[in-house]
Amino acid sequence: MDDSIDDSKRLTRLGNMIVDHKPVFIFSINFFPFLSIICQRLSLAYVAVSVDCPVIEIFHNSIRNSVNRVFLFDRSQYLSICAENPGHIFYLPLGAPCYRNDNLLGDRYKAEYDISFVGSTYKEKDPFSDIILSRGIREKVLQAMKKQIDSSAQGFDAIESCLSDTDISEIEKSIDDFDRYDNYVMNMERFVIMNNYIAPHMAYIERISMLKELAESFQNAKVHFFTRSETLELSKKVVIHDGVKTLTEMPFVFRNSKINLNVTLKSIQTGLPQRIWDVLSCRGFLLTNEQDEITDYFRPGVHLETYSDTNDLKKKIKYYLEHEDERQQIAQNGYEEVLSKHTTRLRAIEIIKTCLNIMENG
Prior knowledge:
- 46% of the residues lie in helices and 13% in strands.
- The chain is α/β, with parallel strands linked by helices.
- The strands form 2 sheets. Strands 7-6-5-8-9-10 form a 6-stranded parallel sheet, sandwiched between helices. Strands 1-2-3-4 form a 4-stranded parallel sheet, sandwiched between helices.
- β9 (286-289), α11 (294-297) and β10 form a beta-alpha-beta unit.
- α1 (7-21) packs across α2.
- The model has no long low-confidence stretch (mean pLDDT 93).
């Protein structure tokens, strides 16, 4: 993954490793075209599991390689690319690391935080703010973003319908270092603008607004924000903590918070982000935005809870802060559901079974 190594050296080094170790397949988190290309040359299976959405590289021509076994967790993302390589691209939700977190947490529980949000404001990941646009197009985009945030807690269907191809092209022309995506299965201009520029800015607007409003809404409960982002724009009533380490510190926040919030990026249009599985695996109570695929695996009000907009979010927070027994029962139900059906171990078994079936059946 070292960018200082040119492609020819990278391919040679990896090829030598494959020859020396003779693996059954190569595995990576997210899809890397150069790995697919070398595996195709060597007739070696390449297994890639997406944990992000979007993964722009899945639209590279190499997605069509016969050695690929690519697993995508967002059904919308899967449907957008599966026809390019039928039988080699699969839909598979992410999973819950129950065993790892059980070993770390044990049975300890102490309600240290009322309302917790672990994550970024996305300000540092927001290139849209630096784009110099005409006043007209900037206002149009910002209004479309507001319409999207106000109309739906998931995806960006509303903003897609607001922005014409001409609008997208004007934004693209204003970006000095806009990447050119050659050798891709489709024109990437709109996709990249929507996912790399529009979605991060919406996340920034949505999260800052949500945290401010929640902090001002509850007199007897504190909003705790664990982040490495700049937080100068937030209300002084938000309790700011440093970011927490994913594997060793974050699980304790999830376990010991009365309510854990999840705000899914708009670029994850239907699927369940890893954060949902992580909170449930820690026996944490989860309050997350509505997302199409949630009801495929969970029952809101039984395993977790969902909200449709900020007003609904505030109502749900108030209710569950006042109903501790119900809140704890839902957290336990959510944990038992993922432990029995959705662990990372079960997902790994499913991936290996799928790969073996392809090998056995040609």
